[in-house]
Amino acid sequence: MESAKKIINLLLEKRGFDFTGYRPAMIERRIQSRLRNTNCKDQEEYFSFLNQNTDEFDHLIDAFTINVSRFFRDSLTFDYISKIILPDLFLSKDHEQDNNLRIWSAGCSFGEEPYSMAIILKEFLKKEKSTKKINIFATDIDRKALACAADGSYNFDSVKDVKFGILKEYFTAEGNQFLLDPEIQKTVHFSFYDLLDKKHLSPPESIFGGFDLVLCRNVLIYFEPEHQKEIFRKLHKSLKVNGYLILGEAEVPNQEIFHKLKRETNCCKIYRKIG
Ligand SMILES: C[S@@+](CC[C@H](N)C(=O)[O-])C[C@H]1O[C@@H](n2cnc3c(N)ncnc32)[C@H](O)[C@@H]1O
Question: Would you tell me which CATH number, out of the four given (1.10.155, 1.10.1070, 1.10.3470, 1.25.10), belongs to the domain 2-64?
Fold first, then answer.
């Protein structure tokens, strides 16, 4: 484990990526995979290799940032958002005479999650003939994933859970790729943001938090409890009162913010800020 710490510290020093709060078992597994790829016999040898091969930093960062995602992942969550949450959100926006909806996808990977939100919102606006302005901010620490996200081109695995009608309406098949409708692409603003960033409570591009809905799914599972706590604090602060926090299937809010959130439904990990 000592060598793993040296490797993590080197990554922090040379590239500014802080993986010190990630679960040790996950870090160990990922370093082992790089050892196999680089033919290093142990972590000490890999540490020296890393010191001498700057390209390897990129591979190591790739190994640590697990980007698995797909459109409409946990489809029940998206159904719930579109059938229950959006009507409620739009109604309260009408009461408040607020024409803006602010959404943050934290740990957005290749963009499947924020784009799924953009699609259900487009469908909702169409159905309700609403003119509300939708602002979707999507952030990640993986710059390569962010660049791909902005590109809007996906393979079959990414779209395999998309209903046929939606696929037909919002994607164009080209070779073995599915190209997302540029109109949907335009509604999502991608930027780099580290959830452990101590300077900014929410992505600087979003100017201020005040989000109506925050998705942070399948990201917290990679962190140690201490760092999860920091992230939960940040997510909670970034939400408006009554705003929604959407977590991944295996994630639950920690003790500290548990009483400041109300579970919205038992069928998915959706919470509402109450205090
Ligand atoms: C498994 S993906 C989840 C993607 C999407 N939210 C979903 O549920 O399908 C996890 C993402 O979290 C990002 N991530 C990991 N550590 C992060 C951090 N400290 N700040 C922001 N994003 C981070 C990774 O780069 C990766 O793209």
Answer: 1.10.155
